[in-house]
Amino acid sequence: MHIATKSSKLDISKLENTKKFADIFSKNIFKGNIILLYGEVGVGKTTFIKFLINCLQKIDKLNISEITSPTFSLMNQYKLNKYEIHHYDLYRLNNEKDILSLNIFEDFSNKVILIEWPEILGKLKPRNTIDINFEYGKNFNSRYLTISGYENLKIFDELKSL
Fold first, then answer.
1. Mean pLDDT across the stretch 22-41?
2. Residue 11: in which H helix or E strand, if any?
3. Of 63, 52, 59, which Cα lies nearest the Cα of 114?
4. What is the three-state SS of the chain?
């Protein structure tokens, strides 16, 4: 079970740092994880997901996919050797009925679920999620992320090197 016990703010202003974070994070997620990505438009959520999925594909020795935002399709699916990744973008959804029709949480035991714009989930937000909050610094050239809800806290030691 994931428990929100620690949080660490990381500077991802450089694209290289976002890639490093995705690489480290890719080695520390497992099927059944639900990862919620918060943040304004353009702050780096989809870029991080692209790097993350590509890292996971490299680990599995699969061809690297073009990773796009599912803003219009609502969900993109990627097959890995041990599990699937379902990448959702809830930006365009307006109500609980729309979310329920996606069956996001129906059976996620053999998947990793990535959700952009999880604010719309409201009371549908499941427990035990990994939450990543992306934010701009004082100017729009700097970006940071905060991660919480992760039980394997050794990842924070690796991430502090960024």
1. 93
2. strand 8-11
3. 52
4. CCCCCCCEEEECCCHHHHHHHHHHHHCCCCCCCEEEEECCCCCCHHHHHHHHHHHHHHHCCCCCCCCCCCCCCCEEEEECCCCEEEEEECCCCCCHHHHHCCCCCCCCCCEEEEEECHHHHHHHCCCCCEEEEEEECCCCCCEEEEEECCCCCHHHHHHCCC
Amino acid letter for position 75: M
CA 68 to chain centre: 14
Provide the token pair at 57: 């594909």
pTM given for the model: 0.88
Q: What is the pLDDT of residue 158?
A: 63
